[in-house]
Automatic annotation (TrEMBL):
InterPro entries: Autotransporte_beta (IPR005546), Autotransporte_beta_dom_sf (IPR036709), OM_autotransptr_brl_dom (IPR006315). Pfam families: Autotransporter. Residues 111-404 form the Autotransporter domain. This is Outer membrane lipase/esterase. GO terms for cellular component: outer membrane. It comes from Methylomarinovum tepidoasis. It comes from the Bacteria.
Length: 404
């Protein structure tokens, strides 16, 4: 970016848009001045650099708040309920067993309604991405709601569809601005039971995403000839664009039972493709930029296990559950995003570097579910991302379900 800025100011100064020419001349001139404060110059370049743009790819592939992770958690959780044979009550994805037999009756919830099931759930995520040399860190919050319906075509085959709405708020560190995203995702899914206790799940998704981003640019540069003369910039460059997401998930697992204990080893394959349109910023006091389109891909394998134990009480059943899974990333390589200054009519481009992700990391979590009479259940859950360098991500789930 600094090289493009220098060439624009020195080689085609008169062709530049006025505000960009003024800012560029001052910053480049100060950088070339041997008496200038290098810390001020470095801070100005840091503030102008658009590393905020990396939030889209980082959140899409490297946190538990990614759209595909949210959809997978919601729908695969629903399928886990169906695997357990509880179509009408969500027991955090497990069946209730006592002395080797499924718990039934008022204390364990009601029998399934039949072939058709309708469901609704929500989730909340939060986390943080640390700042590095190449990335402006940010904190994020994410809310989602998913509604779906499925139908049992055969005893061994279930198909369904769902719709997910996700809203994300991202706040950049160092007062770097904020980004808001709204996602609308449709899904089709199915579950097949080749033999008893063995399941194979398929989930396909397509969604549209609206991105809004405000880059906060704030710095001041002292004049080398007049110490009391400062070039003060305090502005926001605003941009918005759209994106499209495709996803495919394949999952298989086997349920093992021993008295009140259930253990399910499972494996999963997940593929994501995200396309983001090019866009042009507004405002920015001369520092507005144009950004080329982005193509982001992720392909992961997941291997894990769930362990649950059913405790029967006079008023119902309590089921604690623990789970852990290892993720391996095959794609999502390091890449570059092309950008240029709006105020440069030549549109000379520079590259924004996206660092390579961690290939291996883990997710651990647990749930506590209470099931009462008349098919009423309540649950609380927590998951955490473990072993990913400079990224923390957490999911908290609180919910209840009532049989109608």
């Amino acid at each position: 970016m600094a090289v493009v800025m220098f060439e624009a100011c020195s080689e085609r100064n008169e062709q530049l848009e006025e505000q960009f020419r003024t800012r560029c001349n001052r910053l480049v001139g100060t950088a070339l001045d041997e008496t200038a404060n290098p810390a001020e110059v470095g801070n100005a370049l840091f503030r102008v650099a658009p590393e905020q743009l990396l939030v889209y790819g980082l959140q899409a592939t490297r946190t538990m708040a990614s759209n595909i992770n949210v959809v997978n958690t919601s729908i695969l959780g629903r399928l886990q309920t169906l695997h357990a044979g509880l179509d009408s009550v969500r027991f955090a994805g497990i069946q209730l067993y006592k002395d080797g037999q499924p718990l039934r009756g008022g204390n364990a919830g009601s029998e399934a309604f039949g072939k058709l099931g309708v469901w609704l759930n929500g989730s909340y995520h939060l986390g943080e991405v640390d700042s590095t040399r190449d990335v402006k860190g940010f904190t994020f919050k994410n809310w989602s709601v998913t509604a779906g319906a499925d139908y049992k075509i055969l005893e061994s085959l279930i198909v369904g569809g769902a719709f997910t709405y996700i809203t994300s708020d991202n706040d950049f560190k160092h007062k770097g601005g904020e980004s808001d995203n709204d996602s609308y995702i449709g899904s089709l899914y199915g579950s097949f039971y080749p033999i008893e206790n063995l399941y194979v799940d398929v989930l396909g998704t397509y969604g549209h995403i609206n991105f809004d981003i405000d880059r906060k640019i704030s710095y001041r540069l002292a004049s080398s000839t007049d110490p009391d003369n400062f070039d003060v910039v305090d502005t926001k460059a605003k941009g918005d664009t759209d994106g499209r997401q495709w996803g495919l998930t394949l999952s298989t697992g086997y349920n093992l039972h021993w008295q009140s204990v259930k253990f399910t080893p499972y494996a999963r394959f997940s593929y994501l493709k995200l396309d983001i349109d090019n866009y042009r910023e507004r405002g920015g006091q001369g520092w507005a930029m144009r950004f080329d389109s982005q193509d982001i891909e992720s392909m992961k394998s997941i291997v894990g296990g769930r362990l649950a134990y059913a405790i029967s009480l006079p008023w119902g059943v309590v089921v604690p559950q623990a789970r852990g899974e290892w993720h391996h990333e095959f794609r999502d390589p390091s890449r570059t995003i092309k950008a240029s200054f709006v105020g440069d009519p030549l549109g000379q481009k520079f590259s924004i570097f996206v660092p390579h992700p961690d290939e291996d990391y883990a997710i651990f979590g647990g749930d506590l579910t209470a099931t009462f009479a008349q098919g009423i259940s309540a649950f609380v859950g927590y998951e955490a991302l473990v072993g990913y360098d400079r990224i923390s991500s957490h999911r908290i789930t609180l919910g209840a379900r009532v049989q109608f």
